[in-house]
Amino acid sequence: MTAPAGCICLQLRTELDAGNHVQRMRQNLMRGRLGRSRIGIVSGIVRPTAMAPHGEAHTVASGDGNGNFTSMVAEIDPKCIVPEEHRATEADASSFDDSVERSVPVIDISALVQKSSDESAISRVVEQIGAACKEWGFFQAINHGVPQELLDELAAAEREFFALPLEEKKRVNRSITNAWGYANDELTKRTRDWKECFDFGPTYYPDLPDDHESNLSQDGFNQWPEGRPKFKSVLTRYFDVMTGLSTKLLEAIAMSLGLEADYFHQYFGKKHSSIMRLNFYPICPDPTVVMGVNRHKDAGALTVISQDDVGGLQVLNGGKWIGVKPIKGAFVINIGDMMQVWTNDIYKSPVHRVLANKLSARYSTPYFFNPAYETFCAPIEACVKPGTEPAYQPVSWAQYRLKRYEGDVSDRGEEVQIAQYVKG
Ligand SMILES: O=C(O)CCC(=O)C(=O)O
Ligand SMILES: [Fe+2]
After folding, report:
1. Who lines ligand 1 at CB under 6 A?
2. Model ipTM value
3. CB under 5 Å of ion ligand 2: residues
């Protein structure tokens, strides 16, 4: 399916924002289509010997679904080279082993998801979630009720997709005007990630075609690889399960702040703008100079990640990079920038990254639970200390997401960060 000439998002933005800043942003994005800047490489970096002389090619390995690769990575695009001060050192690259003294909390959430009648059991889960959000912004959830068979089906679908020939994946390539689909050139903090990904969002009216106007959001519309109905059905089923689980987690977070459980529901509902992403991190010839995903904070409310057993996801805590150890069947949860704003910094969106790996490819599946695009996020009154000012001005989620996507898809200068919304 081809994207209809980029007009749809413009039209939609016009409706949502009455031709204001966001529309101009979209137009800028479209202008930026003429080619990615090559100026982004910070001087003083060490160039890997494997770099292509022309410095442009990026050969991404394709898997056959069993961890074997149909092509090996031959070159590192200079755009992937992380500035020296943000690379993994030998010490922090090994921080996901058991010798680390502190680790991301693991929380049994069965009482929460089973709607236990034992209120004290629910309170204990809520308390642990609140403490984890405060100290880490991360936790792992076990006994979450999502069947292992669904996780296995998801893992198989993901491996099968990334094993497809590059031309086939490119048929559903995302673009400046449609954020949904395949990409192997995502930027994080102006550095190209060592990964391939596939993104999709909610289909508001599943009986209508994906590109029907009723199914469009500011992100565009879903694109699915042709002739692979199982891929779509497994992913959409998983998406719905993630929406349900995220809603419960958000209820726990609300309760941990002393709010009504359903406090955040008003911002989500049927028109939530969540994103599901399949990530494939190919084997990398030189993980000392590149990252699977460069350091970043997630933009939305919360993220629920399923990861395989390879490891490499790290969170910055107490000035140290700490690995999030893979636990079979567990979900890794982290909060995002909108939660930081709502809670007025009580829960901070954590900086995290994914290491590249020389020996094993890695697969992960984050589900980014995001509010509806009409949402303006502002500090919740109950989270602001009496007699003090809220730390943030209201943030238009639509604009924030759009600006972040601009940074993901093309190098147009500094990516938007939540610190820019601090009241000053
Ligand atoms: O691959 C992972 O475990 C996490 C990826 C991530 O942080 C992201 O896509 O925002
Ligand atoms: Fe992330």
Report:
1. 277, 279, 293, 298, 305, 307, 313, 352, 354, 364, 366
2. 0.99
3. 298
Average pLDDT (287-307) is 95
Cα-to-centroid distance, 207 and ligand 1 (Å): 31
CB atoms within 10 A of CB 7: 11
Q: Compute φ and ψ for 278, nearest 5 degrees.
A: -100, 130
The residue count for the chain: 424
Predicted TM-score (pTM) of the model is 0.84
At residue 317, does pLDDT exceed 70?
A: yes
Helix residue ranges, H only, 223-336? 229-256
**Architecture field, domain 18-421:** Sandwich (2.60)
How would you label 336-374 residue by residue, b for 16+ Cβ within 10 Å and e otherwise? bbbbbbbbbbbbbbbebbbbbbeeebbbbbbbbbbbbbe
Residue identifier of the C-alpha nearest atom 3 of ligand 1 = 313
- Reduced to 3 states (helix: H, G, I; strand: E, B; else coil), residue 50 is coil
Q: How confident is the model at residue 190 (pLDDT cuts 50, 70, 90)?
A: confident
Amino acid, single-letter form, for residue 17: D
